[in-house]
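User: Just a sanity check before I run the rest of the batch. Below are the structure tokens for the first item. I only need the designed sequence back.
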């Protein structure tokens, strides 16, 4: 199959993407976090195809994307007041809430769980597209399972070109890492940290929700937490100091750091926006390793540390927090 490249700045192309989704095709869509691989929520056959083309395990649930806050009531039930307060503050935006699933939502969306993860993406073009589809879409990240999430249309073509109908290209994602996922059914907890932090959430709900790591739970709230994720083919190694890099690796590896560092290392800037792009670039350049310098600003960034630990999970590491496998 030839994967069409559609241009999000052209209304005709948005309509084309919407009609493909209505017909049951898969379309990669831009969001502020990462590109998503979308299917219509009512189309179980198309949703099954998402798992196929991504190579995604069936026990890893998908996130439902609604065009408007009011539409959340169509996919979730018994929504607690706290959820509305959070959506009023953070939607549209990169906060996903885990709510009780409405009976009309196919069980495959939630990997059979009684809950459903829902958010409203912020780009107007994404919401316009969902409106035109006529119902919510489900959209996990548009990468092959386990690979770094895609933050440009090129990344999507790299992983899924030839396997999906189209990519709606809106350029680079403004945030560059996945949404914060907050469980509000039963115990309130962050199951995936993101740019909406525990402090941000505390301003609305009055207390800091804990960040629940898979390793401390026998039964993870979010099944996706147990998989190695976000990983390039190149080993990712977390370091406290540049001294840890053997001199013979200076030329063949790359160092990611939040501040410029001088010679002799090949160094690149680390941020939410650059992380996945740099992971993929290291693969293209066939680097022997990606060293990530854990300066205090990185250590203090729960979202970044979560991605880094998962990416480094099978590689040697000096990180003391343990992996999130
Ligand atoms: P992705 O869209 O690829 O970033 O993956 C979506 C992630 O959202 C999953 O890996 C889960 O961690 C989380 N998630 C989605 N739905 C649920 C749910 N019903 N309960 C718990 N976690 C969920
Ligand atoms: Mg993903």
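Assistant: Here's the designed sequence for the first item:
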């Amino acid at each position: 199959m030839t994967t069409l490249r559609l241009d999000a700045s052209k209304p005709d192309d948005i309509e084309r993407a919407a009609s493909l989704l209505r017909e049951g095709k898969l379309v990669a869509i831009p969001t502020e976090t990462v590109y998503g691989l979308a299917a219509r929520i009512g189309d179980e056959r198309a949703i099954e195809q998402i798992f196929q083309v991504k190579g995604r395990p069936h026990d890893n649930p998908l996130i439902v994307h609604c065009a408007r806050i009011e539409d959340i009531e169509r996919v979730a039930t018994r929504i607690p007041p706290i959820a509305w307060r959070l959506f009023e503050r953070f939607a549209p935006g990169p906060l996903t809430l885990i709510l009780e699933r409405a009976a009309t939502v196919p069980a495959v969306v939630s990997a059979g769980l009684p809950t459903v993860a829902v958010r409203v993406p912020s780009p107007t073009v994404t919401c316009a597209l969902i409106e035109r589809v006529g119902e919510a879409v489900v959209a996990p990240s548009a990468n092959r399972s386990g690979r770094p999430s895609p933050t440009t249309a090129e990344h999507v073509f790299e992983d899924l070109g030839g396997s999906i109908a189209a990519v709606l290209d809106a350029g680079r994602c403004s945030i560059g890492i996945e949404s914060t996922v907050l469980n509000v059914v039963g115990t309130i907890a962050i199951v995936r940290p993101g740019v909406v932090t525990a402090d941000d959430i505390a301003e609305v709900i009055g207390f800091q929700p804990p960040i629940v790591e898979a390793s401390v739970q026998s039964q993870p709230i979010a099944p996706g937490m147990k998989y190695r994720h976000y990983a390039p083919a190149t080993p990712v190694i977390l370091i406290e100091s540049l001294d840890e890099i053997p001199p013979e690796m200076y030329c063949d590896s790359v160092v990611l750091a939040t501040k410029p560092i001088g010679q002799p290392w090949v160094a690149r800037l680390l941020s939410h926006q650059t992380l996945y792009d740099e992971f993929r670039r290291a693969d293209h350049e066939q680097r022997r390793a990606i060293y990530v310098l854990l300066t205090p600003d990185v250590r203090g960034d729960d979202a970044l540390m979560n991605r880094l630990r998962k990416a480094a999970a099978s590689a040697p590491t000096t990180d003391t927090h343990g992996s999130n496998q």
